[in-house]
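Forwarding the complex inputs:
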Amino acid sequence: MSQTPAKIRTPLTRVIRELVRRFAPLLFWAGAGVLLLIVSQFRSLEVNAAAIVQTRRVAVTSMIEGVIREITVDEHERVKAGQALVYMDDTMVQAQIKAAEAGIAQLKSELDAARLELQRDNRTDLRRFMSDEEDAELDVLDRITDLEADKASLAALDRLASDYARLAARNVIATQTAEMAAIERDAMKKKIEEGAKALEYARERLVEVKKRRLDFETHLASVDIDNSPLLSPLRDEIRVGEAELAELRTEAEHHVLRAPMDGQIVSFDYKYIAGQTVNYAAGQTVIEGDILMEVVDPKVTLINVWIPESILDDGITTGTEVTLTSRRPPKRSAQGTIIELAPRIQEFPLRLTPYPQKGQYGQKAIVGGVPSDAFLPGELLDAHFSK
Amino acid sequence: MNILEQMVSGGGIASNATTLANELSALLLAFILGQVVAWVYVYTHQGLSYSRAFVQSIILLTIIICLAMMVIGSQIVIAFGLIGALSVIRFRNILKDTRDTAFIFFSLIIGMASGTGAFQLAFLGVFFFTCVLLYLHWTQFGSRNTSDGFLRFNIAAGEMIQEKIMKLLRRHCRRTQLVSQRFQEDGSGEIAFRLAMRDPNRSDAMIEEMQDISGLSNVTFVLHEDQSEV
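Prediction (whole assembly, two chains):
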């Protein structure tokens, strides 16, 4: 009886090797696919654009026509806001200022003299009122005295007339004498009556004069001599003079050109005439509006990024982060954020186009949040957006 | 013209950022797609010119070209430099093996990556390429010939021992493939099989058992280690 040969088993290593050969490529391939799905979540698309650092430049402009007397700064010098940069020749305006000041001083002295004279006049008028009052009082007293004297005389005449009348009745004296005494007595009565009336009138006059004095005193107390209408012409003249002086001082101030902000002086060779640069220096004549120099703020705060039209899409919005890199050495890099997007496509600045005769169009974005000392004003940069 | 200007000026074009994620995803995709192409090639290849090195080169070249594109980017100057370097190497060295070509090309690309400052890309490329190479080597990817050896024997005329032979072969082998059989006029013949043995260490035992079968002679078994595979 033949024995059934033993089954030959495949060694485990061979089995494993065979399995690996069969399935390992598929497993590796699937693993690579899974890894790709995971890694692709972290992919980013980079948009390359160009950027120009914004410069805050303020021109120092001549406000008058004149001759430069002195330029106190050099190019690239740091200046502070308000610092005097250029002095123009102000000889004439200073002379005008002095003349104006002298004129105003004279007018003021005339005003003081007029004020004093007015005060003096008022005091004179018051004395006159007081004098009238005194006269009136004296008049009253005189009349009272006279009246008393007349009354005493009347009493005497009345007694005399009575006595003469008695004597006349007795035919001691002539009747005419008694009648004369009576007539004198009556005349005295009449005189006293008239005197009383006159006294009354004098008293009324006294009251009136007193009232007039009091009124005048009241008027004086209320009168402001400084604002007296009599002094108005002089005051008006002084005001006009002061206004003219202020104008002259302003004009004198225009002869000094000051730095509008803290910064750095640039662009001395600013004016181009027939293709040649003109250097401003002392002794040179300038006209109103001539730009003598510029002050640049060395601190960079904003950067203009120009994104070409061909690569624009909705992925770039305000808040998108930007990486900015300098083109020129030393290589500097900084991060920023878009704070504003221009609403429309516009033409790029000529500096950014490799071929100036052919314009390039795109969208402008303003980037902020960049450290102020990362780049230089006006510098060209490369901008990278990751999205 | 606009594209050419942009390529020369080197700016204003949206491109993949040189981040690790971008580079790794590109290489992975190249590997995945190259693998698919290689599978299709293996499955559809007909004829005698099949080469495992060629199949592996398909995968390697997709990765190498991907790396080259990332190194060149949009810079036309580097592209022209690569063309020049390749031309010099091609005319100075005749490369018969496509795998050798792939390695030469890869060396060029790594040199260019280092020279252009793409250090991250150079490191990642070498690492990735090495991993893929080890994978291809370890899995013997592209290898079609899975047999262990080549069995040849002579059968005498009139002997009906085919069943016995097949039974023996099925016991010792996982797969058998008839390669050739030649019969003389007298009925004797020579038969050749390609075998994938269950246990290659038992090939001697198999030969002894075959020699014990009457009617068989000149039994020879040649292992594939002794042959060179193209």
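Chain B has two domains: 2-138, 149-225.
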